[in-house]
Amino acid sequence: MSVNYGSKRTVVGAHYGLRDWLVQRATAVIMALFTVALLAQVIFSKGAIGYDLWAGIFAAQWMKGLTFAVIIALAWHAWVGMRDVWMDYVQPVGIRFVLQVLTLVWLAACAGWGFQVLWRL
């Protein structure tokens, strides 16, 4: 006869632990460094801050690529955070799944829109 002391721990969902923590920190660092670089370009620019200045900052291909990388980092950062919120606070699996799909669609659409704005498609 076996004796069961305690209870079984039921873990639902996936992606627990260190990987998500690292993703959140790495994407936050990428966004923070981009913000500092962008602010430095604005602060050390000459002339009025207007459309021409902003267009000039984002005209270079390296800046467009860097900005798109930050858009992807922002979407990934938001996905990890929202997925955790849905898993923690929405108990019905069907509703949680719908919310996660809607979140993914929204983030993909925002990233696509960012691509469109950067390359004026």
Would you kindly provide a written description of the structure presented here, covering whatever features stand out?
The chain has helices spanning 18-43, 51-57, 61-89, 93-119. By secondary structure, it is mostly helical. The chain has a single domain (18-119), classed as 3 helical TM bundles of succinate and fumarate reductases, CATH 1.20.1300.10. Helix 1 runs antiparallel to helix 3. The longest helix has 29 residues, at 61-89. Pfam families: Sdh_cyt. Pathway: Carbohydrate metabolism; tricarboxylic acid cycle. It is found in: Cell inner membrane.
Key structural traits:
121 residues; single chain; transmembrane helix; elongated; SQR/QFR_C/D; mainly alpha; 4 helices; 3 helical TM bundles of succinate and fumarate reductases; SuccDH_FuR_B_TM-su; membrane; heme
- The CATH topology corresponds to 3 helical TM bundles of succinate and fumarate reductases
Percent in helix: over 70%
Number of strands: 0
Superfamily (CATH H level) name: Fumarate reductase/succinate dehydrogenase, transmembrane subunit
Function: Membrane-anchoring subunit of succinate dehydrogenase (SDH).
Organism: Acidovorax bellezanensis
Keywords: Cell inner membrane, Cell membrane, Electron transport, Heme, Iron, Membrane, Metal-binding, Transmembrane, Transmembrane helix, Transport, Tricarboxylic acid cycle
Main location: membrane
